[in-house]
């Protein structure tokens, strides 16, 4: 007599789901800490041993998430979707998507790719320091090849670049991006011409020598202004500013200080602080699960760029911050807050994306979008990137790129395998402008900023964006927060109104 195989019950599946989420969180936490150390404090030679440890951790993550038990758990839960809570249903959706990836990408390739990214992060940092793309080229070639292969394995029917765009912003396609960027070009190119022909603000104050230790004090002041919980959020330095979220209980932000360009770090801290606020504001109910983090890079960038530009470059904030700036750097005392506000809002095509003004920023993104698409479609070789990059910067921004460090090597994203990430920056900027319009219906934003207490702003965003984590799909979340459909004209109208005031047009 053969005993029938016992089927997993719904309650067992629910418990397994919680266990899977917690275990995967723990492995990712450990791997994330190693990555963070690698790009901040670790000596460059340490990537070898770190890579071995990461290989083991990533192999365990792969085995855990694609195990027979994981398959069975998801099968049982999928059969009982009507009986699940909303968070459970969303977790099933997210895990099924991840499982589809890991079940179609061989484990050895997945683990090898993670090792590749670990090495690439170290080599990119050195290559940028030497302004030598050739050092980084072989690794980037492997990253591009792996990205194309993974897309073909997981969703062979889908355009490879659409696959990765969707990975960073669920639902995003090249068709959407093309239409979105076309609308931006239509409105912004004439505005750039008008601004370029106007009398330019004096930006000399941005070149004033600002001691690095005093910039660190400024960073601490900025974090307090943002209302970041300093028990759960720390700041350190790195080559390229970024935010890493381990959980809502532990978020790290980074910056880079330049003695003669204090605004670079200042706005990096505000930008990364926006990312951190989002992660710290996710609901405790979703902690240690995939739901306990920001839902997409477009939504994430809507928060970071909202704080960096809409708040940080506002007249109210510049007036509030000016006394603190003068206190820390008395040489600034020969200028005033009005000059500072005009200087940080000056619109002038430049080389560096993270230092770009609001008006020309999207052009930087369009360059990267076109190059990424060409790489993913096999229409451009990795070896051609510096030449193509320089040509597009001349075409779109009218600037000559002097070297690789100020050109194709300036961003860390490709070393992390993040092909498809960049369009989310422009999308996030546009989301932010429309969020501002909604926010102003119930909150006096300028008054809150001027008072130094932006709690009303933070609370509004928390209620409409942050607390949901990844519970809702990006389009659903944004539609709810905006009270309607996304419309890029809010962004172009915001830019036109602001630049006309700055340039007295």
Structure described in brief:
With 505 residues, the protein is mainly α. Helix content is 63%, strand content 3%.
Q: Which features does this protein show?
A:
three-stranded mixed β-sheet; globular; 2 domains; Neurolysin, domain 3; mainly alpha; 505 residues
Order of helices and strands: HHHHHHHHHEEEHHHHHHHHHHH
Strand order of the largest sheet: 1-3-2
Q: Indicate the proportion of strand residues.
A: under 5%
User: Helicity, in percent?
Assistant: 55-70%
Number of structural domains: 2
- Rounded to the nearest angstrom, the distance between the terminal CA atoms is 89 Å
Which ranges are low-confidence, i.e. pLDDT below 50, for 5 or more consecutive residues? none
Envelope shape:
globular
| Rg on CA atoms, Å | 23 Å
CATH architecture of the largest domain: Orthogonal Bundle
The CATH topology of the largest domain is given as Neurolysin, domain 3
CATH class of the largest domain: Mainly Alpha
The overall pLDDT average reads: 95
Major β-sheet, in short? 3 strands, mixed
Describe this structure in words.
With 505 residues, the protein is mostly helical. The protein folds into two domains: 10-157; 174-502, Neurolysin, domain 3, CATH 1.10.1370. The protein is built from 20 helices and three strands. It has helices spanning 10-39, 47-65, 68-79, 86-104, 107-130, 133-154, 160-168, 174-197, 212-225, 262-280, 297-311, 315-328, 337-344, 358-376, 385-397, 423-439, 445-451, 455-464, 474-482, 489-502, and strands at 233-237, 243-247, 250-255. Strands 1-3-2 form a three-stranded mixed β-sheet, sandwiched between helices. A hairpin with a 2-residue loop joins β2 (243-247) and β3. The protein is globular, with a radius of gyration of 23 Å. The model has no long low-confidence stretch (mean pLDDT 95).
